[in-house]
Amino acid sequence: MFLFGLAGLMWIGPSRYSMNVGRPWFDAWFRWDAGWYMQIVRSGYSLVEPEPGQRNTFFFPLYPMTVRAVGKLLGGDVVLAAVLVSNLCFVAAAIVLYRFVSERWNEEVAARSTALLACAPHAVYFSAAYAESLFLLCWVGAFYAAHRQRWLIAGVCVALSGASRLIGPIAGVGLGVMALEHAGWKLKALNWRVLFLGLAPMGVLAYMLFLQQALGSPWLFLGGQSIAGWGAGHSLQKLWQAFSGWRGGIAPMADLSHLVGLALASVVCVAARRKVGWPLTILSATTLVVYWWVWYSASRYLVVLFPTFIGLALLFEHRPRVTVGLIAGSALMQGMMTWIFTHADWVS
User: Fold this and answer.
1) Would you give the DSSP letter of residue 31?
2) CB of 55 within 8 A of CB of 48?
3) What is the DSSP secondary-structure string of 317-337?
4) Contact 37, 129 (CB under 8 A)
5) DSSP designation for 79
6) CA atoms within 13 A on the CB side of 213
7) What is the pLDDT of residues 260-290, one digit of tens each?
8) Which structural domain, as residue segments, surrounds residue 165?
């Protein structure tokens, strides 16, 4: 993907929306929201609005905090730090996912789940200067820890996910169901350590406290969906129009990828519910309710919904050719999405 992005930039050059970081190897991965994250890394949060309503408080702090910390270890090189954080967090998340699935099912399903995740069309965001890799690591880490009944670690991981994205604490519902599963579905048999799952909202609450202390209001992370250039105009009516027909161009193709992804994830959630189990099914179902509401950026959000890839691997567990076909087809689409993203056209 790095070679593909570099070749594309050398061939036709960056677009006017590119965030030029001065390094050919890395330029391709600093697009769109990466600019907001890097602004936070360099200058912190503020109420400055380059465009009406657009401000950096809509972006949660865990990723820029991590990049800034790694950047200090690298002598202030925050560009390299952002690339390292994104890619190493994905590698770590893939390893944890593999171990989780291999222990809960088997190594073959684990290998296929990990391959499907890595080759997903929008996995381009795992290499970009975005929070997706870190968020994925927090969620997968939480469920792996819960699988091993390490409830403190699970609670900390889901709390950290809330410091990365507002939807993070919703994983606490699935983790609670996993705790009941371990207790044989008997409340009286629950280990008292499951109370650590109550840490789930702490990441969001900590960010709210910071916003109150630093900028005067704890609610400054809300409202991005109604701002021009972000969520404004992407109503349920627009959703119906997107379903009704396509007229070509990048934006309709992006809408199509969101809707197809949402539909497929929803089908897998229902079809694989018995195979993946209730904890992961509930995580998927509750998350998909939110993602259908913010459908206009769903492709980027869906790529971190790891139960979908486990579900696909389990559904086609005895059809290896189908799985290989899915991986190959997804990888080809990933190449196309990488090309579009690195040239700063709209993907998600």
Assistant:
1) -
2) yes
3) TT-HHHHHHHHHHHHHHHHHH
4) yes
5) H
6) 6
7) 899 999 999 999 999 999 999 999 999 999 9
8) 23-217+234-342
Residue 98: inside a domain, yes or no?
yes
Residue 13 lies in a domain: no
Residue 165 lies in a domain: yes
Query: pTM for the complete prediction?
Result: 0.92
Kindly state the percentage of the chain with pLDDT values over 70. Answer: 87
Residue 233 is predicted with a pLDDT of 60
* Amino acid, single-letter form, for residue 94: A
**Chain segment 178-206, per-residue pLDDT in tens:** 999 999 999 999 999 999 999 999 999 99
| pLDDT value for 18 | 57
Cβ-proximal residues to 305 (8 Å cutoff; 6+ apart), any chain: 265, 283, 284, 287, 288, 291
Q: pLDDT at residue 120 above 70?
A: yes
Total tally of structural domains belonging to the chain: 1
- The residue length of the chain stands at 348
249 domain residue, yes or no: yes
Q: Give phi and psi for 115, each to the nearest 5.
A: -65, -40
DSSP 241-294: HHHH----SHHHHHHHHHHHHHHHHHHHHHHTHHHH-HHHHHHHHHHHHHHHHT
